[in-house]
Amino acid sequence: MSKIFTPTNQIRLTNVAIVRLKKGGKRFEIACYRNKVLSWRNKLEKDIDEVLQTHTVFTNVSKGQVAKKEDLIQNFGKDNHTEICKEILEKGELQVTDKERHSQIDSLFKDIATTVADKCVNPETKRPYPVSIIEKAMKDIHFSVNVNRSAKQQALDVIQMIKKEIPLERAQMRVRISLSGKDARKVRDKAIKLATSVEEENWESGTANIICLIDPGSFRHLDEMIRADSKAHGQFELLNLKEMVEGEQAL
């Protein structure tokens, strides 16, 4: 029986996300796990082993062709595959099919709209907008999603752009929470987790009085939680809005 010969400079990989970088007239590619490339670029994933399927630089991942040592030295000034993989990961272009790209764009579009809705209010009503309203405003201004930037980064751009379409203000809500009864401390702990910061908190005769800041997107959830969990022993009210100054707090 004849044996199938596989050249030593070929590696077969399946179900990969390919990142490609052209340098010095040559093509270099790396094989990554799906959904991990953007996580690495957005600093969410810090373990390179979770991103790379193999610490190998290819000229063609699909054919399993490994880059030659002399080509790496000539174009990158080194032949350390891991270090070169990191450079390609940072500067290269993620290769995706048309179907994957459309799905990625749709998902990112919704994530951007959700982020804007969570962080902003209608200054006329002092209430957040539904995500559908933000999505419509984004479509009206023909906002173009950049798949190489995170939803949070692009949400900052969208906030400035759609102000021309709808009244919009980036703000946090300053609210007062009053809790009493035997479940007061348990409800308090759940409420604090939804706050971005606590400005005042005091306990008097078993009653908690808390003033805190929350993102607009948390308002309805917090209101419903206090109503349900405090068993009519809780009060929740909006005091005012704290407008967020650009750069004061990251999205």
TrEMBL record:
Compartments in which it is found: Cytoplasm; Nucleus
GO-annotated cellular components: cytoplasm; nucleus
Domain of life: Eukaryota
Ribosome maturation protein SDO1/SBDS central domain: residues covered: 110-171
Similarity comment: family membership: Belongs to the SDO1/SBDS family.
PROSITE patterns documented for this protein: UPF0023
Domain Ribosome maturation protein SDO1/SBDS C-terminal: 173-241
Record's subunit section: Associates with the 60S ribosomal subunit.
Descriptive protein name: Ribosome maturation protein SBDS
Organism of provenance: Parnassius mnemosyne (clouded apollo)
Gene3D superfamilies in alphabetical order: 3.30.70.240, Ribosome maturation protein SBDS, N-terminal domain, SBDS protein C-terminal domain, subdomain 1
InterPro entries: Ribosome_mat_SBDS_CS, Ribosome_mat_SBDS_N_sf, Sdo1/SBDS, Sdo1/SBDS-like, SDO1/SBDS_C, SDO1/SBDS_central, Sdo1/SBDS_central_sf, SDO1/SBDS_N
NCBIfam families reported in the protein's UniProt record: RNA_SBDS
Purpose: Required for the assembly of mature ribosomes and ribosome biogenesis. Together with EFL1, triggers the GTP-dependent release of EIF6 from 60S pre-ribosomes in the cytoplasm, thereby activating ribosomes for translation competence by allowing 80S ribosome assembly and facilitating EIF6 recycling to the nucleus, where it is required for 60S rRNA processing and nuclear export. Required for normal levels of protein synthesis. May play a role in cellular stress resistance. May play a role in cellular response to DNA damage. May play a role in cell proliferation.
UniProtKB keywords: Cytoplasm, Nucleus, Ribosome biogenesis
Keyword Cell inner membrane among UniProt keywords: no
